[in-house]
Amino acid sequence: MASGARAVRVVVIGAGTSGLAAARTLVDTWDSSKNGGPLELTVLEARNRIGGRTWTLVSEAPAAWNAADALGAPTDMGASWIHGSCPEHPITKIAKALGQTEGGGLVQTDDDSSEVVLCDTGKTPDDDKFDAYESMLEQAQEKAEDAETDKSIWQMLSGRSESGQTRDSALFQYHLATGAEFNTAGPASQLSAWSGFDDEEYEGSEVVWAKGYKTMYEALQSGAVKLNDGSNKVKVTAVAPGSRKPLAVQYGKRIREVAYDESGVKLTNADDGLVYQADYAIITIPLGVLKSSDPRSAVTFRPDLPRVTAEGIRALGFGNVVKVALLFPTVWWPEGTHYYGLAQAGEPDRGLFTYFLNVHALSDKPVLMTFALGSAADMAEKMSDAAVWEAIRTNLMTIFDSNDDVTVPEEMPHMIRSEWRADPHAKGAYTYCAVGTSKDTISAAFGSAVEGRLFFAGEHTSAAYRGTVHGAFQTGQQAARAVVANSRGAPAADSEEEEDD
Ligand SMILES: Cc1cc2nc3c(=O)[nH]c(=O)nc-3n(C[C@H](O)[C@H](O)[C@H](O)COP(=O)(O)OP(=O)(O)OC[C@H]3O[C@@H](n4cnc5c(N)ncnc54)[C@H](O)[C@@H]3O)c2cc1C
């Protein structure tokens, strides 16, 4: 590097998983002699915290939760699970570098430890008909392949399974809500039958962090872990306290305008109108915010984004999932089982507080967590606390109706609810392929840099792993790598999903 070389200015917008992964990767791998100068990194975050849609409640929680160390750990109101945790999983690698393993910092949840009660009989069926659900869903997708146009998965579901299930059966709808609609955040009536389920998965267990996802995002910020550039396998190593390079995140900096041309980027802060100039911007603003015209959220691009990007933003689905964590004075429900469910048909009933995670089975705290899924989620966000508790209590009473040893408490427990749709910096939970969209929509919209200056990252830009923490993490690494390639005068090829071999 020539002495006095100008710094390369990179702004990362957003300090959720993808923004922190991008910033961490840049800091950990930047080579001034090859990249045209030293790195001048700015991380701008609209909120007053890092993590974005990974959000472990600690200090925000009322005293009772802190005192009880709720959930045996703080409470995750965004992502909870490392889906498919296995040695190749990027988030598992972070956990491992931090000394967190299953049984020692990570806690496995068991999908098979589940009791489902039928709403109309109050009884647990001998067979929960999960196999019938899976094969009906597969048949609907096969049928869709022969159709000339894409339709919703709901439209393609038809017929009767060998065991007598139809799309209107209570057990089928229970699995639809707690499976397809939870995994994708997309209501079945809007999920693409062609592409709604074509994302990829890591093969491993479902685990949650005993101390919440903040273990991960705080490590990314503090530099307790070091990342390689992710160009081959993601390598994560632990860093001793004295050698860490923390990321300096600027809080309360909502970007309302992104102006760009081939010479650089200008970003305008919404509150004070301050303009940040940069050579490159990594934009991790969630899809819900990019879609939004709400003045608390809206972002303007000057010039307009390329048509294919704007069209992808418009057409992709951004669904909602509501979490309600309930802290009771004592455990009043039967212990041991991980999940309780209530099978009832119809929208929004099938997804409205019908699925309960027994947090007590994972920790020693008297906590249940329930969810509003599919079309029930947006409705649940608008309900009062009293209405939410009434709906939850009614369902719990049906689930435990036949158990004479159980009495569902009348009094509303301490309750914490997520409101991702109303949140101006999220505007929903996560991305799904709505009818007419596919992996190609995602790759075309976000896979290439705009003018060699704007690099999109975030779960919505991950064709293979959309809607997940690991998808967000990988796209952050890819964006960092693409910025490095551009700074060396060799624009990166269209970004591809990170594959571990
Ligand atoms: C209820 C719920 C449950 C989930 N469960 C799981 C799970 O169990 N496992 C899993 O793998 N995934 C899960 N997910 C998905 C996962 O949380 C997300 O895919 C991931 O966290 C998204 O990371 P991101 O970096 O793309 O976006 P974000 O984390 O949303 O980060 C974007 C950041 O940009 C900031 N921002 C927004 N607008 C601006 C602006 N204009 N200027 C500056 N900053 C801005 C935001 O405040 C935010 O911090 C869940 C999500 C939700 C909501």
UniProtKB/TrEMBL annotation:
Question: Coiled-coil stretches, from where to where?
Answer: 130-157
Q: Which GO terms describe its biological process?
A: polyamine catabolic process
The taxonomic lineage of its organism, from the top, reads: Eukaryota, Haptista, Haptophyta, Prymnesiophyceae, Prymnesiales
**EC number(s)?**
1.4.3.-
> What organism is listed for this UniProt entry?
Chrysochromulina tobinii
Question: Under which main EC class is this enzyme filed?
Answer: oxidoreductase
Protein name in UniProt: Amine oxidase
Q: Which InterPro entries match?
A: Amino_oxidase, FAD/NAD-bd_sf, Flavin_amine_oxidase, Flavin_monoamine_oxidase
* SUPFAM superfamilies, A to Z: FAD-linked reductases, C-terminal domain (SSF54373), FAD/NAD(P)-binding domain (SSF51905)
Organism superkingdom: Eukaryota
